[in-house]
Amino acid sequence: MSIIINRKAENFISEFVGKRINSPEQRLLQGLTALGMQPFIDYNNKSADPDTRAVSVARTIGKIIAGTVVGVSIRYASIFLAKAFSRYTLTEGEKFITSLKRKSKKDILLPNFKPEFYKNMTKEEFETKYDNTIKTIGTLIATVSMIFTNFLIDAPLTKIITKRLTNRIKKRIEKKQSKEVNNNAQT
Questions:
Q1: Strands, DSSP E only, in 79-161?
Q2: pLDDT tens digits, 62-86
Q3: DSSP string over 42-87
Q4: Are 62 and 182 in contact (CB under 8 A)?
Q5: Which residues of 123-153 are buried (b: 16+ CB within 10 A; e: fewer)?
Q6: How far apart are CA 43 and CA 177, in angstroms?
Q7: Whole-model pTM above 0.85?
């Protein structure tokens, strides 16, 4: 079975999604989707007792919020850092770039572009490729950083959120159960 995508959908995906939704935005969308679905699954799990359900829902919400906030923040910060250490100066000829070099010695993340790479490129074409390259470098930095932030920030933040939400959720579950019991007794 093949999926056929019409031209309008293809353009939307490549032009909007492909160019505007990068790593931080993808993580935000993932977090919002998870927050909209996973806690409700745990909340409606009738096979678990109220205490377990409350802790499960609170922990799920905590993990999603902590992971999303930290993940989006680290990704944006890493991309900002990559841009800060990859500045450049370029010289344009009539139509194409004639030279490209690092702005200073601290711009160590700027790839060492050979003249063959940019000699037939306009400034706009280069800036698009540069932007994509820097976002990729930033995402790689973020991925390495998140190995540590998962333990240093995400886990403690998840624990704090879980602790604050558990009693509130437990009260809601108990309230819902008492309503169900009253409804069943009346019928």
A1: 88-92, 97-102
A2: 999 999 999 999 999 999 999 999 9
A3: HHT-TTS-HHHHHHHHHHHHHHHHHHHHHHHHHHHHHHHHHHHT--
A4: no
A5: eeebeeebeebbbebbbebbeebbeebeeeb
A6: 12
A7: no
